[in-house]
């Protein structure tokens, strides 16, 4: 595949809101950026699809807080783009899941262990594990055609409990991907709480070896990926709630998508090769 032949990103992470219903101590998300109204977001969506973007991941904050999320995802599905939602699941009950089930190709759930006490120590909500399992059961029982990805933050608090999640991965065929992220003290809460969560590269590599050599996981089809501190925010094309596009370090603003074409913004991204290597399978879906 020739990088020069790809003039726009394959996949876009669209931070639809920075508002969140949690305040996780490990979170480095940008805060307090105003969201655009639905009409402007429809314009962004059309621009992305018309340019040839294949997949849009709606992220936050907590995207379900954004009041116009449903019509936006419904329209994206209508335009035949692959749709993905990343959520902490607090606002997702059976009725919300049913409402979105016909319009989402992927849902990403955040889960850092199978122990509610560890989850609470990670500053997740109470009974977070039970909520995720309930939703996974609901997807299984209702036979919703949704692919599931699990995002796990590897930290000092939970690193000895992550391997136990192998049983969950094995029990749900809908879990297509499991991605384990090394905690990174980039900014905001994460930077303030570095001593509470930080693990070094050797600790992360040791965890990776344990996961890859787990006997249970050798017999599952789930794709398991690891994202270390060095890979942080590389390869992503990120749109902020106000339309600003993040550049090569995840912080630099390279322009607003309402004012520039997608291809113009893409030309300013240095990590094209990493992006294409990450998302090239999407082209074949």
From TrEMBL:
It holds the Pfam family Radical_SAM. Keywords: Iron, Iron-sulfur, Metal-binding, S-adenosyl-L-methionine. It comes from Halanaerobium congolense. Gene3D superfamilies: Aldolase class I. InterPro entries: Aldolase_TIM (IPR013785), Elp3/MiaA/NifB-like_rSAM (IPR006638), Radical_SAM_PqqE_MftC-like (IPR050377), rSAM (IPR007197), rSAM_sf (IPR058240). Signal peptide: none annotated. This is Radical S-adenosyl methionine domain-containing protein 2. Residues 6-229 form the Radical SAM core domain. One of its GO terms (molecular function) is iron-sulfur cluster binding. Transmembrane segments: none annotated.
């Amino acid at each position: 595949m020739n990088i020069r032949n790809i003039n726009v990103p394959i996949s876009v992470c669209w931070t639809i809101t920075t508002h969140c219903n949690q305040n996780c101590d490990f979170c480095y998300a940008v805060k307090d950026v105003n969201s655009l109204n639905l009409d402007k977001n429809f314009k962004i969506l059309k621009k992305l699809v018309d340019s040839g973007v294949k997949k849009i991941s709606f992220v936050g904050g907590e995207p379900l807080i954004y009041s116009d999320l449903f019509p936006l995802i419904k329209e994206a599905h209508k335009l035949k783009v692959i749709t993905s939602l990343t959520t902490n699941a607090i606002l997702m009950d059976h009725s919300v899941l049913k409402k979105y089930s016909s319009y989402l190709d992927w849902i990403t759930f955040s889960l850092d262990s199978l122990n509610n006490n560890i989850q609470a120590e990670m500053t997740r909500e109470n009974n977070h594990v039970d909520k995720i399992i309930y939703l996974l059961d609901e997807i299984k029982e209702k036979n919703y055609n949704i692919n599931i990805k699990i995002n796990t933050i590897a930290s000092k608090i939970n690193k000895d409990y992550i391997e136990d999640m192998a049983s969950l991965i094995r029990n749900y065929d809908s879990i297509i991907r499991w991605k384990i992220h090394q905690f990174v003290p980039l900014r905001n809460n994460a930077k303030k709480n570095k001593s509470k969560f930080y693990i070094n590269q050797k600790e992360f590599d040791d965890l990776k070896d344990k996961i890859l050599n787990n006997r249970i996981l050798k017999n599952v089809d789930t794709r398991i990926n690891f994202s270390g501190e060095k890979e942080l925010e590389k390869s992503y094309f990120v749109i902020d709630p106000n339309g600003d596009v993040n550049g090569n370090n995840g912080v630099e603003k390279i322009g607003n998508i309402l004012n520039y074409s997608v291809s113009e913004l893409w030309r300013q991204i240095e990590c094209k090769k990493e992006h294409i290597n990450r998302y090239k399978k999407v082209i074949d879906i």
